[in-house]
Specification:
The structure is a single chain. It is globular, with a radius of gyration of 12 Å. It is built from 3 helices and 5 strands, in the order βααββββα. It is 32% helix and 40% strand. It is α+β, with helices and mostly antiparallel strands. It starts with a strand and ends with a helix.
Amino acid sequence: MKFTRHARRRMDLYGISQKEVEDAVSNPDKVDIESDRKVAYKIFELRFKGMPLKVIYVEEMGDIVILSAYPLKKSYWRKIL
């Protein structure tokens, strides 16, 4: 699993660990497909005030590249899950 610079910065900004991103991708609560990108949503009950973590990634030559990761805002998450 590779992380773009943008993804690393978002993870630092929101205090998201690499393990949380890996868990969201490997065991998501929901997955959407937007063209060639996949979007994984995962709820961590004790993190991010109960809001889902959104991870955007692509699969390139058998490798997963994380493009961005951030917790959703309250106004968006009810529409998703």
